[in-house]
């Protein structure tokens, strides 16, 4: 069994979710309140290690009222256990699970275990199917996937995403190296992911699109 997965992101009108090496606010205040309300509904929030290294996010519910106990479990996909021990996601505001592969340095994993729960899935990069299976057995029945673009691609490739919500901020970023909503090696034109639109909503100067994923 796998947890239900909603991929939520914000992108510019030209499809970028960030520049190539820094984070930026793309959607407005009310969209961020929507995201934090969503966080409250999910058992886990998942991101790739580059998002932690670049953004140093909190991944807690901090834009709306919330008790500490209501924070979802933060899940970081980090094959080599590169996560810095002073990352905000390793503070005690919420539980954290770091998913590594068996190639991760054993000493780094031992140090990490003092800060959070560590699970090992896969031999090179994290085996995402196995990881979601393990997370389900640990009681994580729903996951809010919050990027970045490399993890988004792999999660689509493994057919692990059930639903997508993408907020289009009224901005243009451009740039050959800016991250797009989904990067990775890309799909062949015959294998592209098909979506079914569920809702279109205007939130201030942003547009929120909601889709089901059709595999
Ligand atoms: N606007 C928005 O909504 C959001 C924007 N962002 C932006 O996205 C950017 C980061 O995106 P990106 O650089 O693509 O990195 P990701 O956050 O997607 O992290 C990717 C890394 O995850 C690790 N990983 C482990 N296993 C897997 C696997 N099976 N498949 C894929 N990745 C795996 C890899 O590192 P390793 O092999 O070392 O484990 C990989 O390089 C940041 O600039 C951030 O600001 C991020 C989230 C939301
Ligand atoms: N939904 C959304 N809109 C934006 O404009 C964003 N920049 C992001 N970024 C994601 O949120 C993380 C920051 O979370 P905290 O506020 O620190 O808890 C960031 O790392 C991205 O995953 N999302």
From TrEMBL:
Catalytic reaction equation(s): 2,5-diamino-6-(1-D-ribitylamino)pyrimidin-4(3H)-one 5'-phosphate + NADP(+) = 2,5-diamino-6-(1-D-ribosylamino)pyrimidin-4(3H)-one 5'-phosphate + NADPH + H(+); 2,5-diamino-6-(1-D-ribitylamino)pyrimidin-4(3H)-one 5'-phosphate + NAD(+) = 2,5-diamino-6-(1-D-ribosylamino)pyrimidin-4(3H)-one 5'-phosphate + NADH + H(+)
Biological process according to GO: riboflavin biosynthetic process
Pathway where it operates: Cofactor biosynthesis; riboflavin biosynthesis
Enzyme class of the recorded protein, top EC level: oxidoreductase
GO MF assignments: 5-amino-6-(5-phosphoribosylamino)uracil reductase activity; NADP binding
Keyword terms of this UniProt record: NADP, Oxidoreductase, Riboflavin biosynthesis
EC number assigned by the record: 1.1.1.302
InterPro entries linked to this entry: DHFR-like_dom_sf, Rib_reduct_arc, RibD_C, RibDG_C, Riboflavin_Biosynth_HTPR
Domain Bacterial bifunctional deaminase-reductase C-terminal: start-end pairs: 3-209
Subunit structure: Homodimer.
Family to which the UniProt record says this protein belongs: Belongs to the HTP reductase family.
Protein name (database record): 2,5-diamino-6-(ribosylamino)-4(3H)-pyrimidinone 5'-phosphate reductase
Organism: Methanosphaera stadtmanae (strain ATCC 43021 / DSM 3091 / JCM 11832 / MCB-3)
